[in-house]
Amino acid sequence: MKIKLKKLSVFFVFFYFFFNIEGNSKDAPASFADLAEKLMPSVVNISTTQTIVTRTNPFPGFQFPPGSPFEDMFKEFGTPQKRKATALGSGFIIDKKGIVVTNNHVIKDAEDIVVRVNGDKEYKAKIIGADPLSDLAVLEMITNDKFTPVKFGDSDKARIGDWVMAIGNPFGLGGTVTTGIISARNRSIGLSRYEDYIQTDASINQGNSGGPLFDMNGDVIGVNTAILGQSGNIGIGFSIPSNSAEIVITQLIEFGETKRGWLGVRIQNVTKEIATVEKLGKPRGALIASVAENGPSDKAGIEAGDIILEFDGKKIQEMKELPKIVARTKVGKSVNVKIWRNKKEISKKIKLGRLETSEDFKVSKKPKKTDIEIKKLKIKVRQITAQDIEARRLPKNTSGLIITDIAVDSPINYLEVNNIIVEAQKKRIKTPNQLENIINTVLKSSEKTMLVAIINNQNQRRYIGIKLE
User: Fold this and answer.
1) What predicted TM-score, i.e. pTM, was given to this entire model?
2) Does the annotation count 105 as an active-site position?
3) Per-residue confidence in pLDDT tens, the chain, 469 aa
């Protein structure tokens, strides 16, 4: 009798456990059709155009052997050809007036942007704001028409295994719906500074960039941004979580730019060895490698060697968590920070600065490049910068003008964009005005021929003679 009761109790526990799991699980939808039909009018296709300059082979039908020294030399004499390149992407409407969210890389360097709604109506669009650091952009369709917007959901509530739906424009095939689940959270793949991607197996391909990732309530919980591998979908796609995206998008709409919190420190991982030496118990937090002079942390008494364990009530388990949390915190807010110093925990109060106005950001940001037209040569140029010199590994004392555009009928149309004019008439060139003055002097002479030294795109110095008219 005891044995029978024991067997019965085991069966009852199994029976309860099995049906309890069944009761707590969510069945897959019988169909996604109603949800897709509701959301499709809010998802748009984006096409952009930009001008690409290429050069034709001056000797058609003949090719130098790979690696030949003549290959690069003769390539410079090709005729410049301008063509329009088209790129495709996706986006979604967040305001009935026609405000559209997409990826920054979809509209970067675009000369024209066209948004197609519902597969038929097309509208020109302008950029309200773009943020390369998060790869987000906000557009506005130029029209008085009204549209059907979608709203953001709470991406923090999204769980691994939840059903999701992606709608977009893969390979130009607009209005494509794919479904899958959330495969992972908090992914970092090295594409941008602030990464906290949602990973999904819903099919995402080229052209899906900027499109929405919906939950089963029809709310946007992610902005589809990247795929793993260039050959196409392999079941691993990445989306920017809506909670992070919404902060950036709100700022772009309100200010046309971002306003991120800034601590004024450089940080690194806390290794096992560092945790042991600091008597920290286990690796955690973010180790401060250096503190920006007169920055927010410096003013609050933070020192190099401190370890940030908690920021504004949020525990920092790994170093990579801190920049994301700080960036999402309002500029000017005073926050409590717990740090580990001299093998004990202490608290500091820091008033956050703004990243975009910090010296660190200004140094890392590419300088604004202003193109100036040299009318007599029918080219556009800009002054060389320290970043150019470093990137091209040129001598530090290099000065000159980088060619940014060459007209087809230019007297030097055999040169290439990014060639550098370093001398004219044996005089070093530093400014566009200096080059203009030399050209004017040559035009007054009887020969009207100017000797110019350039550095080509292989960093080879060459002299050329230019006949001016």
Assistant:
1) 0.66
2) yes
3) 444 544 444 444 333 334 444 444 456 778 999 999 999 999 999 999 887 666 555 555 555 455 454 555 555 555 566 667 778 899 999 999 999 999 999 998 888 999 999 888 999 999 999 999 899 999 999 999 999 999 999 999 999 999 999 999 888 787 899 999 999 998 887 776 778 899 999 988 888 899 999 999 999 999 999 877 655 567 788 999 999 999 999 999 999 999 999 999 999 999 998 998 899 999 999 999 889 889 999 999 999 999 999 999 999 999 989 998 999 899 999 999 999 999 999 999 999 999 888 876 664 554 445 689 999 999 999 999 888 898 888 988 899 999 999 998 899 988 999 999 999 988 999 999 999 999 999 998 888 889 899 999 888 888 888 988 7
Of the residues 42, 47, 131, 135, which is catalytic? Answer: 135
Determine which one of 105, 131, 155, 183 is catalytic: 105
Provide the pairing of β-strand 344-351 with 334-341. Answer: antiparallel
In this structure, what token pair is assigned to residue 266?
Answer: 């450089």
Mind listing the domains of the chain with CATH numbers?
37-57+66-141 (2.40.10.10), 155-255 (2.40.10.10), 261-361 (2.30.42.10), 372-467 (2.30.42.10)
Q: Please identify which of the residues 209, 242, 297, 410 carries the catalytic annotation.
A: 209
Distance CA 392, CA 390 (A): 6
Q: Where on the phi/psi map is residue 437: left (φ > 0), alpha (ψ -120 to 50), or beta?
A: alpha
Is residue 135 part of the annotated active site? The answer reads yes
Classify residue 331 by burial, with Cβ atoms within 10 Å: 0-12, 13-18, 19+.
Answer: middle
